[in-house]
Fold this sequence. Notes:
By secondary structure, this protein is mainly beta. It contains one helix and six strands; from the N terminus they run βββαβββ.
Amino acid sequence: MVSSSTTISASCASKGSPSLSPQKKITLKDGGEDVYKIGYGAHLKKLMDAYCTKRNLERTTVRFIFRYKEIKPRQTPAQLMMEEGDIIDIVTDQGGG
């Protein structure tokens, strides 16, 4: 089995106060030109699904890693305490032989 990896970097932008608010957004960029914006309290499943759809990948073959741990779809950027400049690693398992 062969793996390939990509990274997504994060930056935060908030409307109003700098505290954790529902309006706070996190912008995720992959190594290319794709940009994903998600609410700081939104489940990361939305990001995962959008990334896989954009790249035409099976969701089951992609793992999203943050701080050396696999991200669960129901986790949020707030729960993971993501900050500007944080990186999500994306590992794609590719079958073959």
